[in-house]
Amino acid sequence: MNFFRLAGDMTHLLSIVVLLLKIRTMKSCAGISLKTQELYVIVFLTRYLDLFTKYYSFYNTLMKLVFLGTSIGIVWYMRYHKVVKQTYNKDQDTFKHYFLILPCFILALLIHRSFNLIEVLWTFSLYLEAVAILPQLVLLQRSRNVDNLTGNYVFLLGAYRALYLVNWIYRFFLENHQYRWIPWISGLVQTALYADFFYYYIKSWKNHEKLQLPA
């Protein structure tokens, strides 16, 4: 494991901690897209099928279980917790997220590393994760004013993907047989989707202002 992957994992974990902190302590999911969280559940369920076929390390297994468990838990809170679900911005979270699933699956069937179930679903998870943030970004643009915890959560998610993109580049140059251009392209697309948010996040941080996104 290299520094960039570890930093990416820890940043991803921190983003989940921030979101759970908001949900558990504030009993609120205001500003959080349930559509994006449901897409993440699909991403992790399809990516981590190798939990049942291969053992890499205790760290690898633990992190996969943590990401799976927390993603399912977040969706449960937003859908079924009697207090939290009342704070969900259902009227603003209207992005048709199911339209993203089929194109990503078809693309995975056409462009993959090898044609078997686990590899195709792994590729599908990368394609879907690249665009899973779209409902969240649309929701933030509609709500305009973004609270600190939500802004930090989205920023950390974007930073995690950027670090993982650097991780793949590092592995390409310094490790053997690590030429995987599918994660590169997926990471570039996902990081590009965050670019506008990053700009306004950093701008608000520098000016000590509340984060606001243009409509």
UniProtKB/TrEMBL annotation:
List the subcellular locations: Endoplasmic reticulum membrane
List the keywords (alphabetical).
Endoplasmic reticulum, ER-Golgi transport, Membrane, Protein transport, Receptor, Transmembrane, Transmembrane helix, Transport
Membrane topology classification: Multi-pass membrane protein
Repeat as a keyword of this entry, yes or no, is no
Q: Check the record and name the Pfam families matching this protein.
A: ER_lumen_recept
| Domain of life of the native organism | Eukaryota
In which broad location class does this protein mainly occur, judging by the first location in its UniProt entry?
endoplasmic reticulum
GO cellular component entries: endoplasmic reticulum membrane
Q: Where are the transmembrane segments?
A: 55-77, 98-115, 121-140, 152-170, 182-202
Listed GO molecular functions?
A: ER retention sequence binding
**Biological process per Gene Ontology, one example term:** vesicle-mediated transport
What family does the Swiss-Prot or TrEMBL record give for this protein?
Belongs to the ERD2 family.
Q: What is this protein called?
A: ER lumen protein-retaining receptor
